[in-house]
Amino acid sequence: MDFRRLTQPLVQIALPQILKHAGFQRSATGIPRFKNFITIRRYSYSSMEYKMIGPEHCDQVLEHLRRNFFADEPLNKAAGLCQNGSSCAALESHCAEAILDRMSVMAVDAKEQEQGVCKVVGVVLNGILKPGDTAKALSKLDTNDDAGFRKIFDLLHRHNLKYNLFEHFDVACMFDVRILSVDSSYRGQGIANELVKRSVAVARKNGFRLLKADATGIFSQKIFRSHGFEVFSEQPYSKYTDVDGRVILPVEAPHIKMQQLYKAICGGADQDEKEQSR
Ligand code: ACO
After folding, report:
1. pLDDT of residue 27 exceeding 50
2. In a domain, 220, yes or no
3. Which intervals hold domain N-acetyltransferase (predicted)?
4. Does residue 29 fall inside a structural domain?
5. Taking the alpha carbons of 16, 20, 22, 26 in that order, is the dihedral positive or negative?
6. In a mutational test of the pocket of ligand 1, which residue from 84, 220, 237 has the highest number of ligand atoms less than 8 Å from its CB?
């Protein structure tokens, strides 16, 4: 009996599937990452719950963002916006504004409680964007005294106005995926993927025809594309320069450009079910 031929399908087909479902990820070398084994043992998928964010969760969500997104997101990092854990008034009001639209989703670890409240380990903050909002936000930027915040949002707003999705798609409003963030000790477990998947479902349920996201790093770009988002326009960071030709935001590799991504959705329960089972 050829033992190798018998076991080959198990090793080549079944084993990778078993490892994937157990939470392992394939690394560049093809060897499952051992690091994830430890992560999965500490935080099993079963303890993760996904909930809509309401205004009552604002403090918890901001606390999560201060410890993760504010310092880690590629543009925030390049602008030196804030140290891990510290607050940033301008960014906080930008986040709080999105929360008020009641389209945002959070991942909470039901096992990890802080004073009886489940720990927020990931968030996606989604807002409703109308024509004219971006121009208004850009004009308000001049009065903002946070230089780092101005550098970031000047880039984003000007790019969005130049490559205008409203003009292209003729919609009255858009579902704007503004902030995607996962706690650094919970990354690599598919939480961001799940948050984006749920955002698409929220947009669909609320009748939006178009979603948009300004993805600032290669990993978030990959995540959005894997959920059917397409690239509408790009801004290389090396081309965002001042009058003397100096790069305004020295974003660290491997992140080299911002991508404005969109996803057009056509309603229908069937399509919704297809999205849910992805
Ligand atoms: N290295 C390699 N691949 C990565 C990495 C990484 N550091 N991070 C994510 N990925 C890949 C995963 O392999 C996975 O690919 P797959 O679906 O083919 O398996 C995919 O991206 C999704 O991975 P998740 O585990 O769902 O992502 P995670 O939960 O780790 O969160 C995130 C990713 C949100 C980018 C996180 O690293 C983070 O919070 N970073 C700091 C904030 C940030 O940059 N946010 C995005 C800015 S853009 C915006 O907010 C609209």
Report:
1. no
2. yes
3. 180-229
4. no
5. positive
6. 220
